[in-house]
């Protein structure tokens, strides 16, 4: 993970029960997977996709799709591609996120918890996260092909 500072206030999240995590998983950024080093990125993305707990989502339609990486939605684990618009993050447990703070996607680390359950996502929308992955589209698709070939022939 990149050294991006984040905000963690466990007592607020515990009271809320992770409602944001129950709605939709936070998006990862290329830096979460070792950008700009594409060799490191490839290995980390393939490992994540093979785990079944991470997936490739996209923003846009047709030829304007931009692919990005995010945690899988519970019940959809194991899908290399998933375009669901809502669902509970695979890493959410009854006691909070199963990932250490530094292992979480940047969008999750940067979320500012609020007592009124109106957390501030600081602009980490699907569109914003996808835009960060724009230069890595070929890499993402190569990872997907290799993971699916592994699963097919594995």
UniProtKB/TrEMBL annotation:
<dbReference type="InterPro" id="IPR005358">
    <property type="entry name" value="Puta_zinc/iron-chelating_dom"/>
</dbReference>
<dbReference type="Pfam" id="PF03692">
    <property type="entry name" value="CxxCxxCC"/>
</dbReference>
<protein>
    <recommendedName>
        <fullName>YkgJ family cysteine cluster protein</fullName>
    </recommendedName>
</protein>
